[in-house]
Amino acid sequence: MLNRTTAPPIKDAIDFNLQLKPYQKFTLDNGIEVYAVDAGAEEVMQLEWVFFAGNWYEEQNMVAATTNYLLKNGTSGKTAFEVNEHFEYYGAYLNRACYNETATLSLHCLSKHTAELLPVVSEIITDAVFPEDELHLYKQNNKQRLSVSLKKSEFVAGRLIDEYVFGIDHPYGKYSSAVAYDALNRPLLQSFYSKYYQQSKYIIFIAGKLPKDIAAQLNTNFGQMTISKTAADKFHVIKPAAEKKYRIINESDGVQGSIRMGRLFPNRHHPDFTKATVLNNIFGGFFGSRLMSNIREDKGYTYGIHSYILNHQHESAWMVSTEAGRDVCEPTIQEVYKEMDILRNKPVKKDELLLVKNYMLGSTLGDLDGPFHIIGKWKNIILNGLPETYFYDAVAAIKSVSAKELQELANKYFTAADFYELVVI
Amino acid sequence: MIQFDKFTLPNGLRVLVHEDSSTPMAVVNVMYDVGARDEDPAKTGFAHLFEHLMFGGSVNIPSYDEPLQVAGGENNAYTTNDLTNYYCQLPAENIETAFWLESDRMLSLAFSKKSLEVQRKVVMEEFKEHYINKPYGDVWFKMRELVYTVHPYRWQTIGKELSHIEKATINDVKKFFFKHYCPANAILVVAGNTTTAQVKELAEKWFANIPAGEKYQRHLPTEPKQTAPRKAIVKSNVPLDALYKCWHMSDRLDDGYYAAELITDILSGGGSSRLYQSLVKEQQLFSNIDCYHFGSTDAGILTIEGKLVRGISMETADRAVELEMEKIKDTLIEEKELQKVKNKTESALAFEDMSIMNRASSLANYELLGNAGLINEELTKYHSITREDIRRYARQIFDVNNCSTLYYYAEADHAAGAGTDHPQ
Which of A324, A355, B9, B367 is 20 to 30 A (C-alpha) from A334? Predict the structure, then answer.
């Protein structure tokens, strides 16, 4: 007779030997570095050009994001339509994204099409022209989009908590506005482009089933442009708000409140960082976390509640985020503090700690599946300037962290007085 | 080419195995042949609420999530109008944990009252978060009722209204479970670092002794052919006017489905697509516009939706969209344009196939449609579509009598206030 009440034996994930496939590295004629992971069964690949052109480097709000967005909207030889048609004809996806420190161009394509695609990427990096009419349309449509987003409590709350924690003038705290869009002009974009795309050193990450001659192809297309400098680092001062608690009515008939709570937290180089990710998982980092178990699975106040440490290079923050029923927002906040208190006052039990470690390592194992995930791990290490052994150090730290250490971390960081709290209805 | 093996247990459970030794992980995917279309019109949203209850403990195991997490696994589920799918991914060494958990909840749930009470609240918050507390969040409640007169695609998976979820009883839950959640109505797919022999052994051990249950016979009303254009008008607290247009399209297994997919790509598949180039870039009537279809099993909806540039009238915008429909109906598209959307489809399929999770759910999907082998025939079907097919299906879909139009107006006082950045 089959015994259904007892779990089958398992191998604990903490006993797994996790391996991160190493990258290959080569340097183009002009000094640009390429990191490559050649793996995978499908004939597809991903290429990413990472520029140090995030909003960290801009002199005026939205200049970095706008420059990045309009990169593919025209070169001196091609209209925006022609650029798009070229990539789309080959079934390729050319995307761009602007972050705080970096801004990227990324290409997903079938490996067989690189010879047709790379020259046009090169054209975009060296010869984007930012046509006036494209900028006009961008401003008009983004202001419209913003007006819709501002009706969403979660959008408004996400902006405001960043402003409170980092200050409205800090790259991590500032955000878009109709005024900022209106103040944009073509010369601003051209000068930012020239300084941070055309002249500065960037990094290339490639992964997937790589063509045999990929190094030569990259060298032809990207190794010949003149790179005159490396972006000088800039210094920004954090100016957190003096007031810690906010209650805002954005839509008077709203049926839910967007709750955000957050405090400053050090970056990945700090010795507490990896161990804090374990504490974060226990607290609110996954479906089985204490916040989820209590506030969703026991009380039904929300569809989901999460805590996370922001993915920032310089200075991070520890955040809690949820949308809860309008009449249960205050009890939800009280429960969050209550869960912090419990973690400060009582060591995590052995079973729960093992569960969280197994979950984290099992999910890390899943994250190593496929070339795009592997290069993503390396990119994080390289861009953050972390040691090559970071992945293994982090795995070791997760395996070894004790309940006592977690309690110490909770006492250090889960101090209610340090948290900003915000509800936007 | 996706390789797979298939066998059926004596109780009717269909099992598919996709071996891939390049990953250290395994995926266990269980798809049930029940979706929102199988609901009682007075108790909508139930299939989805039920999906939540599948995590509230089964007959022999008090918690589903914890043992899976201990085994290093992650899981989730989703409900559509057509089906309900549960999947988990875990280190392949611990694959038996997933068999143990999935088989027990197929055998029977714990039917905990507390779980029902809590999940009712959770789903009501989900309803609020996605459909009430969002500008334009109510569009598809109205649009589906306009497009469908009798078919249960009239409502969304979240349900018609909060009160339906509020009123669900434990008795409803039990009836639903025993009607739909049995081996005869389920498909198990196992993918990743495993073998067919191992899956056979584990499936027999854990699933074979679950009673077969009764095969659910679906008798849904067929939506009658639409014979005149339909129109509705909404005014709401939103910042911008928006236009929505829907047309009936073919069911999932019809050739017309593949043509409709390519038509949506021609119209709005990227920065060089027709609607974007003409209506956003050249004429500047819309700040954004999209064309897509719902991918549903029964005859579905192809839709175009866009937000109007301030100052443009709804009638002007609507006429401009219709003109684009006339073009694709009248003029054969260029070979190059057709090739472009076929190439896009080819690469989209290749990227989709990268993860074992996607491969597993695709296999289950095609098996539910009648034949898992279809997974390897898709590309050929897209490639066989001609320029003439596109014109023929465009004429069929974009028939004026096949169209439902919704004018979604911003209430004047709200439109004027938009653009403020600092909420007070």
Answer: A355
